[in-house]
Amino acid sequence: MPAFVYVLKTRNPDGRTITYVGWTLDLDRRLAEHNGGGKGAKTTRGRVWSLVYAEKYRTRNKAMSREASLKQDRAFRALLR
């Protein structure tokens, strides 16, 4: 089953854009969870997120590895803002 790495973005009340990186087996379901108010990660609850980037991998391990590297790549995430 394919796995996905994704980047979401939203705006803080002060107007700053922030990003969130994660991985999932189902992009649509996961975005709905993030926007559903309570089912997303603690840092994503209560915000309206939009999907700005995704990559598809054959295995979970590859997706998880890529997620870790994207979380460290602030320059790439800044390009997506």
Short description:
With 81 residues, the protein is an alpha+beta fold. The protein has three helices and three strands.
Q: How would you describe this protein?
A:
This protein is an alpha+beta fold and 81 residues long. It has a single domain (3-79), classed as GIY-YIG endonuclease (3-Layer(aba) Sandwich), CATH 3.40.1440. The protein is 35% helix and 31% strand. It contains 3 helices and 3 strands, in the order ββαβαα. The chain has a 3-stranded antiparallel β-sheet with strand order 2-1-3. β1 and β2 form a beta hairpin. The longest helix is centred in the last third of the chain and has 13 residues, at 60-72.
Descriptive key words:
81 residues; alpha+beta; 3-stranded antiparallel β-sheet; 3 strands; 31% strand; globular
> Cα distance, first to last residue?
30 Å
Q: How many distinct helices?
A: 3
The structure class reads alpha+beta
Mean pLDDT, all residues: 90
Query: Could you say which overall geometry the principal axes of the C-alpha atoms support?
Result: globular
Q: Label the CATH architecture.
A: 3-Layer(aba) Sandwich
Sheet bearing the most strands, described? 3 strands, antiparallel
Helix amount, in percent? 25-40%
CATH class: Alpha Beta
Q: List the uncertain runs.
A: none
Total number of strands: 3
Look up the CATH topology. Answer: GIY-YIG endonuclease
